[in-house]
Each structure stands twice: as C-alpha cells, then as structure tokens.
Write a structure and sequence with these properties.
mainly beta, two-stranded antiparallel ribbon, globular, 6 strands, 71 residues, 0% helix
Length: 71
C-alpha cells in the first residue's frame, strides 16, 4: 500500500517493475484475484481492478473511503 496513490510491483533484484497510477489518495489495501488481477482500494473512495501489466480494468466508486478489500 502507499501514501502516494500508486501501486508497484517489484522485480527480484529490488527494482520497480510496473507502476499502477489511478488512485488520487492513499492506497489502503490490495489483493490478487483468482484471475491474477490486482484489486485495490483507497481513501479516494474507489475500488480499482488492474491487469498485471498495469492497465486499469474497472473503477467502482464507493460512498465513503475504504480500508480493506478482500476477494
């Protein structure tokens, strides 16, 4: 999770691999779905679904900010 609104995947050598941009506030939780998508929630009141390559697949707006996402 991050304070800057991004999600990152990392290579084995410790360098950044993919940066997922879209959230506009702190990312509070992420999980991996059965089909290997990344699901994230944020204090920007959204749940976002991402393909592992970094493409945003879906945005769901919530009535209030969220702390935890679980699939």
């Amino acid at each position: 999770c991050s304070l800057d609104g991004t999600i990152r995947t990392w290579k084995k050598d410790g360098t950044s691999d993919v940066i997922f941009n879209g959230h506009t506030d702190e990312v509070t939780s992420i999980c991996i779905s059965n089909d290997n998508n990344i699901i994230s929630c944020s204090h920007d009141c959204t749940v976002r679904v991402w393909a592992k390559e970094g493409k945003q697949v879906l945005v769901i707006k919530a009535p209030d900010w969220l702390d935890v996402v679980k699939v």
